[in-house]
Write a structure and sequence with these properties.
5-stranded mixed beta sheet; 3 helices; Translation Initiation Factor Eif1; 27% helix
């Protein structure tokens, strides 16, 4: 005979929002070991400065972003391992990162 319906204990789960481990917490590096690439992009007619890859824990990324935004006087965000700042800020960003111990930037 055939049974209609799913068996609950057959490996199916309704919990599809399982927490994923972030790579940044596992692969966290000290600032002097980072090799960062800074580049400019134009989005919708405006410049965006991108810097990646940052391998830092979430709390450190948040503190770094906050201090950089205050120092450079611009908006910005972290998207995964990439720092995005509004405007052409490559030289100012390079100097600010060097002061914070990120010595290897292109």
């Amino acid at each position: 005979m055939f049974e209609i319906g799913a068996k609950i204990d057959a490996g199916w789960s309704s919990d599809n929002k399982q927490k994923k481990k972030s790579k940044s917490s596992e692969d966290a590096l000290p600032p002097e070991k980072h090799t960062l690439k800074i580049r400019l992009e134009k989005r919708r007619g405006k410049w965006v400065t991108l810097c990646s890859p940052f391998r830092l824990p979430r709390e450190e990324k948040s503190r770094l972003l906050s201090s950089l935004k205050k120092e450079l006087g611009c908006g910005g965000t972290f998207k995964e391992e990439t720092l995005e700042l509004q405007g052409k800020r490559s030289e100012e960003l390079r100097q600010a990162l060097k002061q914070r111990g990120f010595s290897k930037t292109n």
